[in-house]
Amino acid sequence: MRIDVISLFPEFVAQCAAFGVVGRAGERGLLSMHGWNPRDYAEGNYRRVDERPFGGGPGMVMLIDPLRAAIRAARAADPAPARVVYLSPQGARLDQAKVRELAGHARLILLCGRYEGVDERLIRAEVDEELSIGDYVLSGGELAAAVVVDAVARLQDGALGDAESAVQDSFEDGLLDCPHYTRPVEHELGGVPEVLMSGNHARIAQWRRQQSLGRTWQRRPDLFDEAALSKADRKLLAA
Ligand code: SAM
């Protein structure tokens, strides 16, 4: 997968993608990252990328032309069609289903705004979708872009040591993940649930499912209400 980042600070996103699973995905050739700075496409001695908003008010707005030129340069760098995503607090909220969908694209172009955001006409002309990482306002889209890069990179085939681990993560089946334990068995903070030491895989799977169901019900009733529960799940809940 190829991801191009349009940003005044493209190195920031590249740096976030240099570690751990995402870094390894890059080393294994599963992900290639490319940064494009709109300032490199800006005119004049000052290479302006922003201007005051029409109608007055505080802050600055990112100019159409340097952004459009950067997006076009990114598109032209590879013949595969790219989906252009503008990271914006006004976009649809990012969730695991959307991450899975994005991870299936051969190319993404992530557009990061700054200041008050970008000229609306650029969004209408060049952007396929707007995505938000939550109901709060960041000072720039770079952290949001880094979130998208991380979430899609770990879903690339071969990125995780054990592909099963992504399937068992929270949200994949609509529920939260179960709790996890590791060595030592005895610790001053407590013991490990006996079932996990039993070696009985069917009982362990049942316990994990029960924990997932219980946690989701307690912590995320919104997810629980939407989850497709089986007869066996209902029995576990009643137990
Ligand atoms: N005036 C804009 C508004 O209220 O909708 C906020 C602009 S914000 C200060 C600057 C940039 O940060 C945005 O253009 C966007 O790229 C990014 N950003 C801020 N919050 C975000 C969020 N929750 N999700 C994704 N991107 C965000």
Give a verbal description of the structure.
There is one protein chain. The termini are far apart. This protein has 239 residues and is α/β, with parallel strands linked by helices. The chain contains ten helices and seven strands. The longest helix is centred in the C-terminal third of the chain and has 19 residues, at 201-219. It has two domains: 2-153, SPOUT methyltransferase, trefoil knot domain (Alpha/beta knot); 170-238, Orthogonal Bundle (Trp Operon Repressor, Chain A). The strands form two sheets. It has a five-stranded parallel beta sheet with strand order 2-1-6-5-7. A two-stranded antiparallel ribbon has the order 3-4. The chain has helices at 10-16, 20-27, 64-76, 96-103, 120-126, 142-153, 163-168, 201-219, 221-226, 231-238, and strands at residues 2-6, 32-36, 50-51, 61-62, 83-93, 107-112, 129-132. Strand 5 (83-93), helix 4 (96-103) and strand 6 (107-112) form a beta-alpha-beta unit. The model has no long low-confidence stretch (mean pLDDT 96). It binds S-adenosylmethionine.
